[in-house]
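We both want to read discrete structure tokens more fluently, so let's practise on a single case. Would you supply a protein for us yourself, any chain you care to pick? Would you write everything just below, so we can both look at the same thing?
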Amino acid sequence: MALVNLRRADRSLSPDATAAVGAATQPEAVAAPGGGPGPRRRRGSLGPVGLVLAGCVSVQFGGALAVSLMSRAGALGVVSLRLVVAAVVLVVVCRPRLRGHSRADWGTVILFGITMAAMNGLFYQAAARIPLGPAVTLEVLGPLALSVLASRRAINFVWAGLALAGVFLLGGGGFGSLDPVGVAFALSAGAMWAAYIIFSARTGRRFPQADGLALAMVIGAVLFLPLGIVESGAKLLNPTAIALGAAVAVLSSVLPYTLELLALRRLPASTFAIMMSLEPAIAAIAGFLILSQTLTLTESLAIALVIAASMGAVRTQVGRGKARNVT
């Protein structure tokens, strides 16, 4: 079974919203002394890719801890610990300013916080009912749908289709035997993941550094903590649970969310969404390396398809950057 972690459009995106998602997250040109684009532009096309991949790797180590923590604190308790600890860490490190933000800024960050809390809660509810492999496979359909809606290039439909074939193979090729409630939770988590991509990009543009992320994490923690208390109660105060929750929060929330927020400032939402399809592949590899879980031929083929789709999306984006430099 693939080792995965929780993370992540709207039911429909209007043309204006779709254009905003794609255009607002395009890499910005950096002028050279002579007036043309400088060398930093090329690094800007590759840098976000490294940020996303680093976030994916961090998530898998956090996922390993989260699996052991769920038996101690319950699904909602794990989410509460993650959000609360991550909120504390981000507030201490970032020290976000509370003044000087417009009503639109606060509206965006509040929606971002709600999205994170809902995304995490829905996924763990799915993971409590269906295996993690099919759960993340269904969840990743949200970002894939966003990649098609936000993209303006026909080639991205090819990459999305290739990634979709891969994640379905990784999920075993079918979902007919799964708990329908768990499937519904996983699909809902996928919708929230796509919304997370959108609001993360908007928050990154409105707030400096990771200030918006810190504020959104506080909002999500405040909203979700009552649910965790109702389900887990005093279990949340267990020292072992707190220690594991802190580690999960750093590896699965603080690091990946920060890296993704920074990446979305320079990476188109469509490319980012397709790269998120790497999650099942990296999870399966982590399960093999860390938990000695074997990979079948079908799973290996699925990983190859997903990686090929992500590499194609990255090459398409880098090619666009080079073409703009030439023109």
Remarks:
- The radius of gyration is 19 Å.
- Residues 135 and 155 are 27 Å apart (CA to CA).
- The longest helix spans residues 40-73.
- Confidence is low (pLDDT under 50) at residues 1-46.
